[in-house]
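BUG-273 | component: ligand-complex export | severity: low

The export step for heme C jobs runs without errors, but we want the raw record kept on the ticket for reference. Input record follows.
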Amino acid sequence: MRRWKRFGVFGFILAQALAQAQAPDPVLYPPSGVHLLGSRVTVVAEADDIQTTAQVLKKVRTGSFVHLVLSLSRGKHELPLVIVQKDRVVRQPRIVHVFPSRHYVEAPLFAFHEDKSMVSACASCHAKEAGTKGCLRCHTDKAGQPEVPHEGYDPEDCGACHQNGTGPATASACAECHEATSGRLHAPYAVGDCRLCHDPHGASRKHLLTAEVTDLCGECHSPEEYVKGGHPVSNHPVNSKELTCLTCHRPHGGPFFPGHLRWAPEVFCSQCH
Ligand code: HEC
Ligand code: HEC
Ligand code: HEC
Ligand code: HEC
Ligand code: HEC
Ligand code: HEC
Ligand code: HEC
Ligand code: HEC
């Protein structure tokens, strides 16, 4: 009798555990541990509602699905996700890593379009027939008019730069219209990843830069490092109206090395003094 009772309790726990293990994950996207570029992250779940602590930009309900568009800062987030369904509440936390650019991605990027199961789960609504218009349905930030548009960017033709439509875009796509810099090249330019400094979809800064000049250079060169290394002009007001890093340095490289300077060393100081 006692044995049966004990089995009953055990059986109940087992049945619950099985039910939990078999219940499909209500969160369709993103998968846990995903690495993403940019700050906009869309969570999609089969539910009545999704609740979380992050800043919500937009909530879209379509049929039995909810899309929650979040704005996340750089770094690792352990997002609490509370999935509200008709008869139950599921807590399904997600780990999401947000990177400003590929430079910082150590683990491989999650390639959304290469995961067949993900694409088919979404394809019922986001069908391919719409072509580039279909792309803009998910990548809404690529559709708008940015403050500084890129003349070479056509929102109707993603394939102009993205191999096979949704694949990576490489520097060779830029080389079709922009003559390559010659001479000794600045390392990140030589690598050919223009996105380290520019957003070719359009940006809010001139020259389509992804950050203010001092911050941009500072992502890889800390002032401590180059001032200690003997930066000859450490007492210059480098982040002022008169001088930025670009007043003296060429960002892609050029004929004057070391330093990728704008003028030859023997005439350099006399340009301004
Ligand atoms: C069903 C929604 C959806 C549609 C439609 C869609 N994408 Fe995506 N795409 C995503 C998601 C989600 C990611 C993952 C990164 C993110 O969240 O921004 C992604 C990532 C990307 C990436 C980055 C590379 C990668 O795999 O991580 C590129 C480039 C891209 N999409 C281009 C396109 C183009 C071009 C089209 C149209 C042919 C398109 N996408 C259509 C949802 C979509
Ligand atoms: C039931 C239909 C449906 C399904 C399934 C669906 N979506 Fe959507 N999705 C939509 C609709 C409709 C919109 C446009 C909403 C709007 O802005 O009006 C949208 C918009 C989006 C956006 C843009 C949100 C924004 O404003 O930035 C993304 C990203 C997205 N979907 C990703 C996905 C992903 C990833 C999946 C699969 C896991 C998916 N969707 C499955 C209907 C669906
Ligand atoms: C179809 C041709 C075309 C392609 C491809 C193209 N561009 Fe452009 N781009 C232009 C034109 C035209 C301009 C405006 C004229 C100019 O400033 O050279 C421009 C301007 C720019 C500017 C701003 C220049 C400034 O001083 O404000 C940057 C930065 C830039 N492109 C980067 C890129 C990158 C990075 C790529 C590759 C991902 C790329 N472009 C691909 C045609 C193109
Ligand atoms: C002028 C060239 C160019 C065009 C046109 C272009 N892209 Fe891109 N895109 C790039 C480059 C360069 C990257 C960096 C990707 C890489 O490193 O592989 C990128 C990255 C992306 C990413 C991932 C990072 C991010 O910014 O979210 C998405 C998503 C994306 N593109 C969507 C699109 C869509 C959708 C279109 C069409 C509406 C489009 N792109 C058209 C050059 C372009
Ligand atoms: C280390 C950061 C960095 C990288 C990487 C980089 N750029 Fe630039 N680029 C800049 C900055 C900063 C400027 C603004 C220059 C100025 O104000 O004189 C610029 C200017 C430009 C311009 C306009 C002026 C000119 O020289 O024609 C174009 C076009 C351009 N970049 C294209 C590219 C392309 C294409 C790539 C990739 C092959 C690339 N850049 C990689 C930082 C970078
Ligand atoms: C994505 C990272 C990255 C960014 C952003 C970046 N750099 Fe660099 N830079 C490097 C690397 C890597 C080297 C070569 C490594 C070294 O020798 O220290 C380098 C080298 C240099 C050098 C020394 C060249 C020499 O050896 O004499 C100068 C000067 C320089 N960068 C200036 C700048 C300026 C100015 C900016 C902003 C427009 C900038 N960098 C942005 C990565 C970057
Ligand atoms: C007034 C002109 C001027 C300004 C402004 C300036 N630099 Fe320099 N920088 C130089 C000169 C000159 C050198 C020495 C080049 C050489 O090695 O001969 C140099 C060297 C460097 C080096 C290489 C140092 C080393 O030890 O290898 C880096 C990195 C660098 N600068 C980054 C920057 C950054 C980032 C800024 C903006 C915050 C900046 N510079 C602003 C003139 C300037
Ligand atoms: C692109 C213009 C430019 C170049 C090139 C330049 N400087 Fe300057 N320099 C300035 C500006 C602007 C100031 C700050 C305003 C001032 O004091 O005149 C400054 C300030 C200085 C000061 C501080 C003056 C004071 O009163 O404290 C010294 C020292 C100096 N520079 C030396 C040099 C040397 C050495 C070189 C060559 C390696 C050089 N500069 C190259 C623009 C430049």
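Assignee comment: Attached the raw record above. The pocket of heme C (ligand 6) is lined by residues 103, 186-188, 196-197, 213, 216-217, 219-221, 245, 249, 251, 258-260 (CB under 6 Å).
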